[in-house]
Predict the 3D structure of the following.
Amino acid sequence: MIIHAGCDIITRMDISVLSTTNDIEQLRTLALAMAQNAVSENAEKEEKLRRQNTTLQQRILLLEEALKLARQQRFGKKGETLAGMQRSLFEEDMDADIAAVEAQLDTLLPAEEKAAPERPARKPLPAHLPRVTKTIEPASTENCPDCQGVLRHIRDEVSEKLEYIPARIVVNRYVRPQYGCTCCQRVVSGDMPAHIIPKGVAEPSLIAQLVISKHCDHMPLYRQQPVLARSDIHLPVSTMADMVGRAGAVLTPLAESLHRMLLKCDVLHADETPLQILDTKKDGKARSGYLWAYVSGEKSGPAVVCFDSQPGRSSRYAAEYLKDWTGSLVVDGYPAYETLAGQNKGVALTGCWAHARRNFADLYKASKDPGQKWRSDRSPGYTGWKRRSDTGQWKRSASGGSVMRDQCWKNCGSGLSSRRMRARRAPRWVKRSRMHSNDG
């Protein structure tokens, strides 16, 4: 029998046990056993080193991808839209210039006969807008201007054009005649209607315009000031700010009613965004705050949107606003919502495909291959991505959406893929998105 052993195995053998006997068969048996033990020990060490090497390689891969993502977040494009879909900054000005040149050409060049289109290219104007009929009669409705023949009415050619009537401000004069009683000398007069500011000069309609322009049209009060000044109405910014504040106090019961309606929905969307808040305790200096937004689900009842301005981003603000509420909460990956779900067992966190996509988008940015991390675990019939032969670019096939969704869900339950993707925070979003894929 020939035994092949490495130099490292022979040097590590303890051959002192061979001197205990002179029997050739026993010596052969002992030597064979010692060689087999040495080989098995060496195989175990090699397997241990191989596992350590695999672990280190995976860690290096994760660190390299994290470095690429960090560079992308710091130096790369922040927007999620495609560059080819972004509109040019001066595209509107170019369209306006082209329209002006075409209008000048229409006046200089003779009119061309064009075939009537099968359907109008312009959408009809909204039906709820009031119509002002302006009838334009010819110079003579009895005789033809060419042959002096008798004219008869055939039809009406109707064209509609939009006209903008600038907003105008009127002054309402409240005249209350006072009457005195001849017996008890009591003075009797009519009661003034209810106003947001009883002794102010602004009607509720003006205050509503300030609020809508500020919060819906994104016009700060200092920009609304010159707009009113064009009508010779000079209101200080502080006065307009007081009007907006009083309007918020008057609308508080409405906000509370919307809050109660929101808590009756079984599906809610929640998110928070940074917001600069003026701190009255620090001489009106701006500080960082957060605007929490809560929206009812698409199929969970009437559409309700509520905002909650808070100075922080802690989970206690969401827990306070959603107190005693139970249902499915659609959120992003912010850990505060996980803390909220841990404190309130009636809240089930769910995700959307938009947030699940971001983790795979980060993975693609790091590896430049959407299928690289899935190729070893996907099924043979998986056709989510394929490479074009002419350009070499990756694209998703027509049936790749549902197949990729099912494959992601399947891989999230498997051991190897779950370990690979858990570091990229993708599995939990695929699972949450699958739970909440049928509701907006």
User: Anything to note?
Assistant: The beta strands are 179-180, 187-188, 267-279, 285-296, 305-310, 327-330, 347-350, 385-387, 394-396.
